[in-house]
Design a protein that fits this description.
4 helices, 86 residues, mainly alpha
């Protein structure tokens, strides 16, 4: 999966979790929590969706790597490189 496809996967998950948020102006370098009203349960939902959809295991100590879109894509790139987009 390419970085652009990973970004789209994250956008799709964010859209499911926070359907009222406008994701069109999401800045990839800024933390999600500075741009959206996400609480800790929403964050866990992102992790659970990645596990459910792509069988990606994300240990709790790696959660800070999912703070922004840029860091999330960078973290997931090696884990999803051989996974075709659904």
């Amino acid at each position: 999966m390419s970085p652009g496809e990973i970004r789209q996967v994250i956008l799709d998950i964010l859209d499911q979790i926070a359907p009222d948020e406008d994701l069109s102006d999401l800045q990839d370098s800024k933390p999600f929590r500075e741009q959206m009203e996400l609480d800790s349960m929403d964050f866990l939902d992102i992790v659970m969706e990645l596990r459910k959809q792509y069988r990606v295991q994300i240990p709790e100590e790696d959660y800070p790597a999912l703070a922004s879109m840029d860091s999330t894509v960078e973290y997931l790139k090696p884990k999803l490189e051989d996974v075709p987009k659904r």
